[in-house]
Amino acid sequence: MADITKKLNDLADSIEGILDYAGIQNVHYAEIGQSMPRGSNFSDCDRIAVPLDGVHRMQTVCDGEVVTIKPVPGEVTFMPTGIWNYPDWELPVRVATLGFQDDYTWISYVNCNGKENASKAVYRMRIAPLSDDSAILKTAVKAFKSGNQSVGKCLLEALLYCCTGSMKKGVWSSSSTGKAAGTWRHINDYLEENYSCEICREDISQEFKLSPNYISCLCRSQTGMSFITYLNKIRIDKACFLLREYDQTLDEIAFNAGFSSTAYFCRVFKQLLKKTPFEYRNSR
């Protein structure tokens, strides 16, 4: 917990340093687009990506076209709910991304050394929800859609300052849970951040310095499911979002949701939802 608290404080200081130096100089406002590359990021909540060092190069949709943008410190990428982005991670970058759920706010941190070392350290942590974040974000969306970027920038700056204040209060929990529940919350956040990667119980064991058997027991006690069933549930939830929002092939959806093969994806989908992906898509 102390290590996570230090990470949050360091991230808050980095974001505030950028805001205090010159504020947000430019906002890349991402839009909905049906064409989505394999391996893209997507989310069911509003997100703000803040480069801390380097270049956060990515593809996304702006002004109705798929474009490559290159945000640097002093710029942010604002991605409303349902929007995809595809960072290539070929350039060195440190970037923090904030996501605004209904009952909490999360922040993920990526430290990537670039093409010569494509592996990247990824963390996701929860901070307290902001009472006015929904209203601020909705107003910001309206400002960007109307072409008023100056108002949108001011709103996002204010929101980021509020977030850094929450970050300095430490990791947030919606209730006074015990140690096991708190540990599982951190594991769950890690799975939510890394579900699209090849990941197994042993990876979680190494990341959190816990035995694989304890991970299994913890998952069973907190969710009533085995570890692989719970991980598949997360992936199927992401696949359902893609089936609802995007006109992708099943191969693309299976890949973006983290499944090793389309056949396995379809089998798990049918087991969990009692219908095929085609039936699910046609029923929406």
Explain this structure.
By secondary structure, the protein is α+β, with helices and mostly antiparallel strands. It folds into 2 domains: 2-167, no CATH class; 179-283, Homeodomain-like (Arc Repressor Mutant, subunit A). Helix content is 47%, strand content 20%. The protein is built from 10 helices and 10 strands. It has helices spanning 2-22, 133-145, 149-167, 179-194, 201-208, 212-223, 227-245, 250-256, 262-273, 277-283, and strands spanning 26-29, 41-42, 46-54, 58-62, 65-69, 75-79, 84-87, 93-100, 105-112, 120-127. A 6-stranded mixed sheet has the order 1-6-3-8-9-10. The chain has a 4-stranded antiparallel sheet with strand order 2-7-4-5, with no helix packed on it. Helix 1 packs antiparallel against helix 3 (149-167) and helix 2 (133-145) runs antiparallel to helix 3. The radius of gyration is 19 Å and the shape is globular. The mean pLDDT is 87.
Task: Write a concise keyword list for the protein shown above.
single chain; 284 residues; alpha+beta; Arc Repressor Mutant, subunit A; four-stranded antiparallel sheet; 10 strands; 47% helix
* Content-based structural category: alpha+beta
Number of strand elements? 10
Helix content: 40-55%
Indicate the multimeric state: single chain
- Quick one: overall form? globular
Question: Number of helical segments?
Answer: 10
Question: Could you describe the largest sheet, including whether it forms a barrel?
Answer: 6 strands, mixed
Strand residue percentage: 15-25%
Mean of pLDDT? 87
Placed side by side, the strands forming the largest sheet appear as 1-6-3-8-9-10
Tell me the count of domains: 2
Q: What's the helix-strand series?
A: HEEEEEEEEEEHHHHHHHHH
Distance between the termini: 42 Å
Stretches where pLDDT falls below 50 for ≥5 residues?
Answer: none
What does the radius of gyration come to?
19 Å
